[in-house]
Amino acid sequence: MESIKQGANYVAETVQGAVSGASKEANKEVAKDSNAPIGTRMSAAKDALGDKSDESSHDAKASAHKEIAKN
Question: Residue 53 in contact with residue 16, Cβ under 8 Å?
Answer without folding.
Answer: no
